[in-house]
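S1.2 Input.
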Amino acid sequence: MQMLEILEQAEELLPNFLNASSNWKSVNIDYHPPRVERLWRQWGQYRIYLHCIHTCRASEALFHPHPWPSAMTILKGTYEMAIGYGTGLEIPPIAALVITGPGTRYEMTDKDAWHYVRPLVGTAMTVMVTGEPWIRESHGSDSPLAPLPRKRVHELLAYFRSKYPPK
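S1.3 Output.
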């Protein structure tokens, strides 16, 4: 099954998942721009992520490979995305630069695909689903990342509930 199909299934279930707020974990990804506020939960062999991605300068955005296959939906905001391809952690050349906006859906299903995302104004809100991790080097923090404040978790859940209301 394609990751975009799995994302579609996850989005159909999101109204129910969002009502169970205690099942969501949070992390403030601030070791490298752009800062990402992340909520996540396990869903069988997959993980569902809710992101609030903050803006940064193009020269700051982390160009990185994903350690797992993934698919994303952009709900709010416009971001620049650079795309490249390479093994290991040596930064490959940028092969494409695209501007994405609300309604954009894409998947990354090759372990050597790289990208960066950089909201152009304000923040971008996204839903991402990931599969089983690959055996692959990837970037990460040298120290543990902190969870988000409880108030911020509730604000983020409220936003995503507004986009995925109960049916």
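S1.4 Remarks. The first strand starts at residue 25 and ends at 29.
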